[in-house]
């Protein structure tokens, strides 16, 4: 069965940066979240994490004409990629995206966009678990271009055997479908079935859920604590 495609207008392209701030997600409706609170939820929360991948090859002087590394370390010269790994099927993540869009379009919000944003935030995912992955960097262009190209060009067949969720008891749930990034700022989609053997794959007693993907040289490995994924009295994933 073909997984439902998740889209939202290209007018809401996002550039999500790293912001550390205390969040109050369960204490007020998402329409009252600040921009910082919404971004915090996307980058460092029970549903959204940032995995930093470092390239240390630039941390050593090679010397003229040597062609090999081995010189003295150069402080602060490593390249860092930020992989944003999020449960897009979790309502808090979609509410965070929606809130950032609302704030950005406060001056020119129209009824059509407002309705689209509201529907995106409130949608249900009874059949699928969707992990969204995006990548950014403020320090390197070459590595970022390579990582972006990987996300844009890989296929389900190429990723299927090396991409999975690890649940209770070490059970693995392998990728069902991969969708490359669209022009909506949400990132690439890794789609898994929600129901396995007649039961939800993720339950409240699962302990933790791990997302693993061998992404052509970029090894993604993110752990999410299930007990912290409660939102408004419901397990959200």
Question: Could you characterize the architecture of this molecule?
Answer:
With 237 residues, the protein is an alpha+beta fold. The model is unreliable at 1-23 and 58-77 (pLDDT under 50). It has one domain (18-56, 78-235). The protein is globular. β6 (177-179) and β7 (188-193) form a beta hairpin. The protein has a five-stranded antiparallel sheet. Strands 5-4-10-11 form a four-stranded antiparallel sheet, with helices on one face. The protein has helices spanning 35-43, 91-104, 111-122, 142-153, 156-159, and strands at 48-55, 79-87, 128-136, 163-166, 172-174, 177-179, 188-193, 195-196, 199-200, 208-215, 218-225, 230-231, 234-235.
Task: Give the topology.
Elements: H1 35-43, E1 48-55, E2 79-87, H2 91-104, H3 111-122, E3 128-136, H4 142-153, H5 156-159, E4 163-166, E5 172-174, E6 177-179, E7 188-193, E8 195-196, E9 199-200, E10 208-215, E11 218-225, E12 230-231, E13 234-235
Helix pairs in contact: 1-2, 2-3
